[in-house]
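Researcher: Please translate sequence to structure tokens.
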Amino acid sequence: MADPETISRDFVHLHVHTDYSMLDGCSRIDRLMERACDMNMRAVAITDHGNLFGLFDFWNEAKQRSKGDVKLKPLLGCELYLVWDHALTDKPDRREHKYFHMGVLARNFKGYQNLTKLVSDAHVRGLHYKPRTDLEQLAKHADGLIGFSGCLQGVIPPGAPPRRLRSRAQSLREVRRDLRPRELRHRAHGPRPRGAEAHHRRPP
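Model: Translation complete:
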């Protein structure tokens, strides 16, 4: 049987909302980091909805707690509001307005710079009910970013018809291969072969 402590060290939360996700998160950053350290986690992400307001506190808390043998790596990201069939500057009626959630993580400093550009532009030009971005901006600022589908409101929702999966998969390939969600690769091409890594299997 696997050692629970080893499992905790190897497991990383990549989809995390803090109390900077208005009406959607309640985790205080200091308590989140304390709990992650208590569970011997090596890394934890922040992916608040549509903003980067918590990144400074998140980074500082992680660095302050990384002492001696304790190393907690902060993964900086955001869950973007992505419009799919129109530009971010368009402002359709609420009944026709549709956006998706898409998580992105900065892989390096270039990714962090592009993440700040995407989110800033979403607030300055794309604000319409939510701070939104679109595929054009995502393609323009894709370097250094890793994308994932996120949740039930994601671009690639669980249980979506295969035709829709293939269509959206192609659109994301045209944006950039690095941003192609890991989950999408398995859903678009059928089940993984026997012996695939256990951490990619969906729970029963």
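Researcher: Any highlights?
Model: The chain has a mean pLDDT of 79.
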